[in-house]
Design goal:
Elements lengths: L2 H23 L11 E4 L3 E9 L23 E2 L4 E8 L5 E7 L6 H12 L7 E8 L27 H20 L2 E11 L4 E2 L10 E9 L6 E6 L12 E2 L3 H8 L4 E6 L6 E2 L7 H18 L4 E3 L2 E13 L2 H8 L7 E3 L7 E12 L2 E5 L3 E2 L1 H5 L21 H5 L5 E3 L8 E2 L36 H17 L2
Parallel strand pairs: 3-11, 5-6, 10-12, 18-20, 19-21
Antiparallel strand pairs: 1-15, 2-4, 2-7, 4-5, 7-9, 7-14, 8-13, 9-10, 15-17, 16-17, 17-18
Helix pairs in contact: 1-6, 2-3, 4-5
Length: 477
């Protein structure tokens, strides 16, 4: 038996013991259904602000690059990384905040820390909801924990730096306050465009959903516009050999659109990369990717005016954890987690995550934890003949856009929680002797790495069930 097989057996045993302890000592109280928040007025108001989130390069510290392998020590800076915030209201005393940062992700524990700090500010009044999205740059600094130095069997130590995390928290307050102070009236529009060939995947996706969406704020005073852009591609093209800090293609996207404010968010990015545009030069490749998305944004010509109305439901829910390795990391305090008991997995542990569904006028947004496969959101599952399990798509939950009855709903990933990949059950495959520790190739020769960084086969069902409840609350009069 291989050493990794033995390690895997040990991890399974430890995590099941942890689950039994949680079952004895923790109570999972029923989570109440959140009531909708309604804001309406005569005109939109939006404020925008941004700031760099650069580490102290003179502190003699070790920073770990997040997103590919563990223990990758940062060696320099390719591009700055930043954080941005938009305050949105309908001309009244209450509004919402939306932040986005060039980082791999944050757990809900850290997001709630940020929320508390923002809500404690005496410079912001009437904030009804705070959402924190991450561009998920694979060349950013570890802000989750599991990209620190690994041990002999590849289990990483905590890669977070306390001072850098403090910088993330303080910058979130800074940009939120500045965005609130910068609010001004104007009009809001929504538009979209296809980018054929703009996405690449090694998984079998019949439809990659190569759509860029743009919500465009035009201020009455004729000043700089603000664009909220969404595209479903990983910022990861510098690859696993990279040791330079970078925001990857979103940085160059913003550089190309220097005349407008840009809040960039990623879509359903599970197993989805931006197209390779220069295979010989990775730096030029991410520059071209950013320019490709920016050029598409500039070509959008189907804007529709959005009425100044916001309706929003932000709903916590229990997300079952079947991943032995991620549970083991949480047990070792590598990442932050609030564990709860569940009977949905053999570990017996769930975490409390959340989703936000809201509309700006008639444009719907669904803010999701983790990295959802595009077919879990927009449909087009692989059929029985191609599925690695040999099972048909009927065993999968309904795609989220189908549940909403809205194919133009904008899905935003890695928001308010970093929970890993969400893979449909009929295409979910684990290594039989090293589950969640190493990937495995399926009968078609495709590598099933993504399952190792998922919470488990039940994640999609839990998300779909929660979304169904959220829609019922949203649509209640």
């Amino acid at each position: 038996m291989e050493i990794l097989d033995l390690a895997s057996k040990g991890i399974v045993t430890f995590t099941k013991g942890f689950g039994r302890k949680i079952q004895r000592t923790v109570r999972a109280a029923e989570i109440p259904q959140a009531a909708p928040i309604d804001l309406a007025g005569e005109t939109w108001r939006l404020g925008f602000a941004g700031a760099e989130i650069m580490p102290d390069l003179n502190a003699g510290k070790t920073y770990y690059i997040a997103g590919h392998g563990s223990g990758h020590v940062m060696e320099g800076v390719l591009t700055p990384v930043s954080m941005f915030a938009a305050w949105i209201d309908c001309g009244g005393d209450e509004g919402i905040l939306w932040l986005s940062a060039d980082i791999i992700g944050l757990t809900r524990v850290e997001v709630n820390t940020i929320r508390k700090k923002i809500l404690a500010s005496d410079k912001i009044k009437g904030c009804r909801c705070i959402n924190f999205s991450c561009t998920h740059s694979h060349s950013g600094i570890d802000t989750v924990g599991y990209w620190g130095k690994p041990n002999a069997v590849g289990i990483p130590s905590d890669g977070k730096d306390a001072d850098y995390m403090a910088l993330i928290f303080s910058t979130a307050v800074q940009v939120a306050e500045a965005a609130y102070a910068a609010r001004r009236p104007g009009k809001l529009y929504s538009g979209r465009i296809a980018i054929p060939g703009g996405l690449f995947t090694k998984r079998d996706f019949p439809d990659k959903h190569e759509i860029l969406t743009r919500v465009r704020f035009v201020p009455e005073d004729g000043g700089r516009e603000t664009w909220i852009l969404n595209f479903g591609a990983h910022p990861n093209s510098l690859g696993g050999d990279n040791r330079m800090l970078s925001g990857e293609y979103p940085y160059f996207l913003r550089e190309k659109l220097a005349d407008v404010n840009v809040l960039f968010t990623i879509g359903a990015i599970g197993a989805m990369d931006a197209a390779e545009l220069d295979p010989d030069d990775k730096v030029n490749n991410i520059k071209l990717q950013g320019e490709m998305v920016a050029d598409a944004a500039l070509r959008i010509d189907n804007d529709r005016l959005l009425a100044p109305q916001i309706r929003l439901v932000q709903q916590p829910f229990y997300l079952p954890v079947g991943n032995y390795v991620l549970t083991f990391l949480a047990m070792r305090n590598v990442m932050s987690i609030d564990p709860y008991p569940t009977d949905k997995t053999d570990i017996g542990v769930a975490l409390k995550s959340e989703m936000t569904y809201f509309t700006l006028g008639d444009q719907a947004f669904l803010l999701l934890p983790g990295e959802n496969f595009v077919n879990t959101v927009y449909g087009s599952y692989v059929d029985q003949a191609r599925a690695t399990t040999g099972k048909g798509p009927e065993i999968n939950p309904a795609p989220l856009a189908e549940i909403a009855g809205d194919p133009e709903m904008i899905a935003v990933g890695v928001t308010n929680d970093m929970t890993g990949y969400v893979v449909p059950p009929n295409d979910f495959l684990l290594n039989p002797t090293q589950p969640y520790l190493n990937g495995v190739k399926d009968r078609n020769g495709l590598n099933h790495y993504h399952e190792t960084n998922s919470l488990g086969i039940g994640a999609q069902q839990a998300i779909a069930d929660n979304f169904t409840r959220m829609l019922a609350a949203y649509r209640a009069q």
